[in-house]
Amino acid sequence: MLSTLANPARFMSFSAWAAPISLALALALFAVGLPWGLFFSPADYQQGETVRIMYVHVPAAWWALGVYTFMAVASFVAVVWRHALADVAARAAAPIGAVFAAICLVTGSIWGRPTWGTWWEWDGRLTSMLVLFIIYLGYIALWNAVEEEEKAARLAAVLCLAGFINIPIVHFSVDWWSTLHQPASILRAGGPSIHPDMLGPLFIMAGAYLFLFASLAMMNMRAAIYRRRIEAARTRGAGR
Amino acid sequence: MSAFAATLRRDLALMWGAGGGALAPLGFFLGATVLVPLAMGPERALLESAGPPLVWIAAALAVLATLERLFQADLEDGSLEQMLLSPTPLELIVLAKGAALWVAIGFPLAIAAAPAAIALQTPPERALLVSVSLALGMAAFIGAGLVGAAVTAGVKRGGVLIALIVLPFFAPPIIFGASVAAGEEIGGAMLVLGGLALGAAALGPIAAAAALRLQAE
Q1: Which of A71, A34, A18 is nearest to A214 (CA)?
Q2: How far apart, in Å, are the Cα atoms of A219 and each of A19, A224, B22, B198, B206?
Q3: Model confidence over A7-20: pLDDT tens digits?
Q4: Which residues of A fall within a CB distance of 8 Å from B175?
Q5: Which of A137, A158, A173 sits opposite B151 (nearest CB)?
Q6: What pLDDT is attached to residue A100?
């Protein structure tokens, strides 16, 4: 399926209906998941009502990592097969992943206030998410700094893959570091295991984030392809 | 002479020769270290705990400041194209450039870290550990720095961009280096630091060479 879509013209006709459909799916899932999580799911026996921010926070964290993985795969395809659409896909995904990471950081901070008693705790997961956010910013900044678009795409792909190797190393080091510095480890949401009643809305929200990402990424890619076509048409016009 | 040795000698000559290029990072490091007690106050206990980590940060920033011109000069004057034409793989030449940077700037910074740490009230026996760990840390910094310098070689005034790109890669060595400097889990942290240095020295040149080939296109 991916190889059929690799053709830009076929991608354009596929995304013309796939993008709005996934947006509609995302909105529908949000319409189910948000009220379910925020009003109709059980409160936590320790954290009480504040646990509900989990339904916004945790899927954002999952997909901030998921989007970066997607970008790394696209970058790999771009580096190995020099495929133009893979470049466009990686670039289109980056700002969305960065926003997911930012949502995760902000909601994590808001969640930390009632549960940990502080706006920011140098907890291992929060710290690695912050580093991931900075990696996103560096990637986006490199894209914008290199003027020649094709070269920018290839260089960004190299950087994305290097960052992909870095992420697990950062994660491991930060875990080691936070256990070293905080012997009394912080209570995580709902204790060691999560109540099954909380899993339903959590997965629905995860699905909502996924379809939101898919639709926004496709729209971004369409915009990028249209921009390229306009530029190509302009240079043809100028040559005349 | 092999291309590796030739590049190493050329880069060392350039860094030591022209206008004391290797002295400037040392001076930067010294200046940044002086600012620490000025900002925190000269209180002994406070400096003793904060000193070694700040020495690490100052050294990381000093080496960061040298990265911008690392490949840019080669790209501008055509040396990079000669390197690409040479039968020696570009990865090896990039490794030579990184090694030269370590010898000319990384290692002197690691040596200078010991007196700087002592001046910040670190016990002298631990200051030696700061130096040794920083010598390893510098290799990890430079390996990551090669990638940042290579992807931004074509960007004019790319200094801040390099910093933004490279700093996330500095996080793991900083964590383990600061742990050695603080005297916690010295053996294990030193081993991990050595592993990070070797990993960066192995993977950094590969990624940097891939980026440099694109720069020359």
Answers
A1: A18
A2: 6, 9, 49, 42, 34
A3: 778 888 888 888 89
A4: 173-174, 176-177
A5: A158
A6: 94
